[in-house]
Known about the structure:
single chain, 11 helices, 3 domains, alpha+beta, 376 residues, 5-stranded antiparallel sheet, 3-stranded antiparallel sheet, SH3 type barrels, 57% helix
Amino acid sequence: MDVARGAWTLGxxxxxxVLYFALRWLAxxxxxxxxxxxGILRRLRLLLGLVGLAAVGAIWLGKAGHWAAVEKFLETxxxxxxxxxxxxxxxxxxxxxxxxxxxxxxxxxxxRIQDVAKRYVATKTISYLLGLIVLIMLIRIWxxxxxxxxxxxxxxxxxxxxxxxxxxxxxxxxxxxxVRKPFAVGDRIQIGEHAGDVIDISLFQFTLxxxxxxxxxxxxxxxxxxxxxxxxxxxxTCNYTKGFNFVWNELPITLTFESNWxxxxxxxxxxxxxxxxxxxxxxxxxxxxxxxxxxxxxEHLTPIVWTSVAANGVTLAVRYLCVPRDRRxxxxxMWEAILREFAQHDDIDFAxxxxxxxxxxxxxxxxxxxxxxxxx
Length: 376
């Protein structure tokens, strides 16, 4: 009987709370003046408080026969036993209370926490903790003591392991994410062939804002990817931002064989030094921190220009550090600087695929020309 009264009490309090928040939302829309609105809401709280007090008093001070009649009516209408009726009433009260408490705490977090990332973590933590409390309460309501829970779990564990293999794997993936933290919300990752920025992590999946595909240079496609947590045990995961928040980028630049490639290399080195992210001490500090946790060793963090020979010219590859989300923008700035600088030098030309006829007897080196009469 006390369980039923407690369920009714919780239902009344939750109903009054929902009514108050609904009226407050309506007052905010209909009454623009803040002072008038606050006065009305103050009187409304007082009125609802008195109503709630009267209702709770009636529930707990009323005759037991009244509640027995209510339970009897529900038993007759639904065709279920008295224990099931009490469990249903308690379940409704617990679920409604969970929704209201979660809404209140989430609203409080939205108001008090300005940082988006911290607010997201607080909201998720509230949902998980309240969900765990509700689960324990529902198990207690429907299964009784510890003995009933153990017996029930022993009977259904084998069936659950087979029928819910993928959901259980996803739940294990969530536990792995929570404990080991291979990535967190806000990180840029690649799992399998999919890459993107992590915007949400839940019990069974995490969500990415997709990058790449038909868009160049790791920029967003605008699509959301929902990836099962179980993929963490089946696919390789790359993290762009954890530990060392920089990536190496390369710009291959091919010049003609006749160009002054040494001068071009000096120009490219200067431009790379100007636009590289490693100018700041922040990058060097991150590299040192990463080397303490992982076996990471960077011999050079400063930009470097590598020289090689291609089929149509001399290739100078500019290698430099950049922020992962700034890869395209940094390449854009460097290319514009390179184009402007090379335009000022007549002895530097870009190489591109062309057809060329080469007469070795006329253009070849004197010692390598074929023997024969001199060409006219």
